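FAQ: What does a ligand-bound record look like?

Like this one, built around copper (II) ion:
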Amino acid sequence: MSLALVLAACKPPAERADPSRPVEVTLLTTPARVGPAAVEVRLAVDGEPATGAAIGIVGDMTHAGMVPVVAPSVVELGGGVYRSEGFAFDMAGDWVITAEVRYADGVTRQGSLSVSVAR
Ligand SMILES: [Cu+2]
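The answer part, i.e. the structure of the complex:
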């Protein structure tokens, strides 16, 4: 328990939830299976769609010893909606997809989604 508290305390400000800048991560390819998967990220700032942001999408498994999967690119569709290109799950199990966002004004935030991936 004390370890969890220490880890939580060490999180940089960018990883904390910010109600004024929600980062909504959605898996469009369902059910989640090993292979290509489309990930969508929706951004808003104070209730308005956030355009012109740069986003990196990374998938990590919850067990040790795995190389993270990085989406080669993320395209902006407009209206605060962004979509990964080339992301793929390479193993069945529990994953956390993290979107690292840099807004047009330079502010950074993160959003994440936990996914159970089937074979
Ligand atoms: Cu794994």
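Follow-up question: can I read anything off the structure? Yes, for example: The chain has one domain: 2-117.
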